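Issue: copy button drops trailing tokens. Both records pasted manually instead:
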Amino acid sequence: MILDKLKTDTNKSDQDLIKFSSILATKTNEGFVVLERNDKLPYAILIKNQKKVNHIYNLLIFCFTLGLWIIPWIYISQVSSKAKKILIAIDENGIPFEEKCF
């Protein structure tokens, strides 16, 4: 009885670790780099470096579109080009979650 429960717990933790590793593999394929990882808890902190914005190119597009490009240009420079840091973990119920780190 106790041995069966121990096997079930071990299988569940192995499945959680496999799930965690697959999420990490997906994120690293998206360009994130693992900053810190702990397989016992399991959690990982990932970082995606800042993108460089080509402002001269955006200025040319801005001029050709008669100023309509200002909204995407602001979004590109202020939001999407920033470095991103996220925490990926699996809670005690085996459910993976992702949160932004500040």
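Record 2 (pasted manually too):
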Amino acid sequence: MAAPFTYRENDPDSLTATWGPLRTHGLTWQPGWDLPALLDEWEPRLAGADDLDTAALVTVPSHETANALPLIHHGFAPLTVIAERLAGRPVAARTSDVRVRPATHADLDVAVELNLHTVRYDAEFSLVNERPNTAAQLRTALAEVLGRDHEAMWLALSGDTPVGMLYVDMPQDAGWMEKFASARPFAYLGHLGVRPDARGTGAGSALVKHAHAVLDDADVASTLLHHALPNPRSTPFWYSHGYRPGWTVWVRRPASRSRYGVSAQPERPSET
């Protein structure tokens, strides 16, 4: 079987360039494959990919913990988790004075601003990048969400002031996540963001509670999302709302080890 190495160049003028480097080398592990051997085979292919707009990404099941040590030995860090919530999973109740309403086209400027807050915060955790055209690309993408023939975006308001935004891709728009879903139909939670000065007020929880009610009422069996593992807010927040890790994306940025003066073939620890 051919080794499952991939290479992708992202259009610098696309929104995809905000979510990751311009050039990504990928490896998605499958049961029965020898990950240490694959990593050793991959290293020479990554030589020279040493600028910060390159990354090597290895996607593995989160519970396959035997994969962790070989990845660490090759200089990878776990940065992103694909998490899943199954319908009806109970969560702890939280009260808040924040109210939630559907977003409309008149809210587009606010939605872009709130999404930019999230981009700037997530950029601290290695993969996300605010680029010169990020705001314009977000405007186009969020306008498409607002133009759907069903509710897909909501705002959290403190008084009359929008402080948070969430949107979802319902099953008809979430097909690109097919291989990560354990139940069907499934949706994808594309964004949750709260203004920095409103974090901790319950705005995020209010939005998630509302979205989950909509998804459960629509008989959506599974909801998927990405979150940044090093983000000190994301992991406790999402798991307190019923999500569980499904897949972990281990990242090395830049893709090549040579930038750091490290051998491309790391010495493996001896077995005793």
